[in-house]
Specification:
single chain, alpha/beta, seven-stranded parallel β-sheet, 9 strands, 16% strand, globular
């Protein structure tokens, strides 16, 4: 794994939504590589991410509020002298009927999955632009950004917007040595997916339908983040890297099988 060979000692890393799921895995990977890691969220966690004796620092922040994002980054710059890596990981959405979901829910989902990353990136830019090494911003997007997203339409639209935001900021901020990249993340086994897919048996059934015969793990996403934050990707900016184990099986293959069975042809 990348964490076995990369050294982030002295680096300062902020992971939004870093107290659980994929975000927690990302935070733990950077800790394992020696970084100083800050995670943020709206509620105090029962325990912060840790690696060995090293533990992430938690700071409260509603990433949907621009003023709270600015205050968070100002505090980090004051206490740690700057910020080298921002991972915009906070996101998610409940499943709802697109025809009847409330305007309030639509707005909140877009705020959490798109607007928050813009606010936090702006705040990080104010710190990173004055640093000799600039910085690295990594946006966690989703396969829902590049295919249909029924019952999570606002989420898919927001994650698609995040990919465009990535390209735009990479173009604007490149001269200030700030690299901006995105991960297009596929199906990942977390505590939430365990419930969504009906437990371990459900996760195994879903994994068996993917090319690599398993669902992803938070560690898989974390390793891609380590790469994008490291000198190995010094000339990588504006990229959209797919972390989905080969992708989901195209539905037309199943439709063709059904049609052949209906027609009685081999």
């Amino acid at each position: 794994m990348a964490k076995a060979v990369l050294d982030f000692s002295g680096s300062r890393v902020l992971v939004t939504g870093g107290t659980a799921g994929i975000g927690r895995g990302i935070a733990e990977a950077f800790l394992a590589c020696g970084a100083t890691v800050i995670v943020c969220g709206r509620k105090d966690p029962e325990a912060t991410p840790a690696s060995g004796t090293r533990r992430a620092e938690f700071r409260k922040c509603d990433v949907r509020q621009a003023e709270q994002c600015r205050a968070l980054l100002e505090g980090i710059a004051r206490d740690h002298g700057g910020l080298d890596v921002l991972v915009n990981n906070a996101g998610g959405s409940p499943e709802v009927d697109s025809a009847t979901c409330s305007p309030t829910l639509i707005e909140k989902v877009i705020q959490l999955n798109l607007t928050s990353a813009f606010f936090m990136s702006q705040a990080a830019h104010s710190v990173m632009k004055g640093q000799p090494g600039g910085g690295s911003i990594i946006n966690i997007s989703s396969v829902s950004a590049v295919r249909s997203s029924p019952r999570t339409a606002a989420y898919g639209a927001a994650k698609a917007g995040l990919l465009n935001l990535t390209e735009s900021l990479a173009m604007e901020w490149g001269p200030e040595r700030i690299r901006v990249n995105a991960l297009i993340v596929g199906l990942v086994a977390t505590e939430n997916s365990l419930e969504h897919y009906g437990g371990e048996a459900g996760l195994k059934r879903v994994g068996a339908m993917l090319p690599l015969q398993r669902m992803g793990t938070p560690g898989d996403v974390a390793d891609a983040c380590l790469y994008l934050a490291s000198p190995l990707s010094a000339y990588v900016s504006g990229a959209k890297i797919e972390v989905h184990g080969g992708g989901e099986k195209p539905v037309f293959l199943d439709l063709a099988e059904i049609a052949r069975g209906t027609d009685g042809k081999p």
